[in-house]
Amino acid sequence: MLTKTLEEKQYLVRYKADKKSHLTILNQEVCARCEGKYCTYFCPGEVYKWEGTRMQVGYEGCHECGSCRIGCPAQNIKWEYPLGGHGIVFRLA
């Protein structure tokens, strides 16, 4: 049995993205003052990207792990489950 790399395993994950994000930055100014920009490191889907003076959220690649709910020291990220029928779709092979 072949062992897959993390990147190969993540490639198997598919998303059915809604038109509206289930992730919300509550206050961009709080992100601007955040020294660590921790969300850009702990999110396995690399959803959070710092672009210029704003935090951008690519919710379409969210793994729905909820780490952003607990990882943001300022609790500045609102995380909700995607609407029914949307979100992550796992494939095992």
Q: What can you tell me about this protein's structure?
A:
The structure is a single chain. With 93 residues, the protein is of the alpha+beta class. Helix content is 23%, strand content 22%. It has four helices and six strands, in the order H-E-E-H-H-E-E-H-E-E. The chain has helices spanning 6-11, 28-33, 39-42, 67-71; strands at residues 14-16, 23-25, 48-51, 54-57, 77-79, 87-89. The two termini are 12 Å apart.
Structural descriptors:
alpha+beta; 23% helix; 93 residues; two-stranded antiparallel ribbon
Order of helices and strands: HEEHHEEHEE
Q: How many helix segments?
A: 4
Sheet having the most strands: 2 strands, antiparallel
Task: Report the radius of gyration as a whole number of Å.
Answer: 14 Å
Report strand order across the widest sheet: 1-6
> Structural class of the secondary structure composition?
alpha+beta
Number of strands: 6
Low-confidence stretches are: none
Strand content: 15-25%
Measured as a percent range, the helix fraction is 10-25%
Basic shape: globular
Mean pLDDT: 83
C-alpha end-to-end distance: 12 Å
How are the elements arranged and paired?
Layout: H1 6-11, E1 14-16, E2 23-25, H2 28-33, H3 39-42, E3 48-51, E4 54-57, H4 67-71, E5 77-79, E6 87-89
Antiparallel strand pairs: 1-6, 2-5, 3-4
Brief synopsis:
This protein is an alpha+beta fold and 93 residues long.
